[in-house]
Amino acid sequence: MTPRRINLYLISIIFIASFATVLLNYIDSKSVSDSLNAELNTQNTPLLKSVVKEIDGIPTKKPNGNASRERPIQNDQMVVMHRPDWKLDGNFKDHLEELIIIAANGDSKANYIIAMNLRHCYYAPADDIALDKKLEQAYEYSDADIAVDRITERYKYCFGIKLQQRNQFFKYLEIASNRGYVVAQEIMGSITPELFMKSQGYEELERSDFIRKRDNFIDQKVRYMEQAAQNGSIKALAKLSNMNRSQIIGGNGYVKSYAFNQLILEFTQNNEMYNRYSWFQQKLYPQLTPEEIENALAMSEEWLKKIKINGTLYLND
Q1: 192-207 pLDDT, tens per residue?
Q2: Both 197 and 246 in a single domain?
Q3: Taking the model in full, what pTM does it have?
Q4: How many distinct structural domains can be found in the chain?
Q5: DSSP-assigned letters across all residues of the chain
């Protein structure tokens, strides 16, 4: 073999060896990259799913570290209900006649909207004289401009609604509540005995009649709140808990409050509310006997089953 051929042969061998080395490095690099990407994707997928879980199309974030423990993710069979807007455009009187017709045909939502607007107008000045008096009082506030704007806006919105009509807010609220309309039952729970007695003209009753009428109303609103709570109303659960904790409702108040708190912790998606009722539980715990704690937990389990059977959830907006 001539020297020239030997040189060409050596050059060919070197070229083939170099090409093979480059090819092997590329294959190894791609395998490592694919493997790394697969590993990262595998790790990221559950991480992303753990941050937000869709419940009936509504994203529910896990609580932050401020909560004393992680709240359970809601049963995806629970339907989150939304409270309807009741405030209308323009002057309320322009809508009232049509709403009354719809309500008379058995529409609970129409009864609720009428009730909410009449209650809103209950606190509005009835005429120009009452408006001037309200404005005069408002000018004494530090935020007088804001107060004046609110009073004026409410006066215009409610203009033309007579006092007798305004007092009928309870009538329409009661109709909707009796039909099981949860948002109306929630509002019924927020009405004080004082407002009920005054707005319905019972302030001048004889003492025994006055007490009987007031106590009957309290019993009535508790029944409405219990119905709302068993349909998943967080507001109703909170109201029942607070009333029992304050001993407003007689009979095992602390036990019932503990049970309602447990249900709030089960369902609420609000971190602030969760922390508040966790604190209430911690305060109640040493005041209850082991038997009372057991009774409270049994009650909460019983109510939990009813709520899940009903299948609706009204979150605390």
Answers
A1: 999 999 999 999 999 9
A2: no
A3: 0.73
A4: 3
A5: --HHHHHHHHHHHHHHHHHHHHHHHHHHHHHHHHHHHHHHHHHHHHHHHHHEEEETTEEEEPP-TTSSSPPPPPPTTPEEP-PPP---SS-THHHHHHHHHHHHTT-HHHHHHHHHHHHHHHTS-SSHHHHHHHHHHHTTSTTHHHHHHHHHHHHHHHTT--HHHHTTHHHHHHHHHHTT-HHHHHHHHH--HHHHHHHTT-TTS-HHHHHHHHHHHHHHHHHHHHHHHHTTBHHHHHHHHHHHHTT-S-SSHHHHHHHHHHHHHHH---HHHHHHHHHHHHHHGGGS-HHHHHHHHHHHHHHHHHHHHHTEEB---
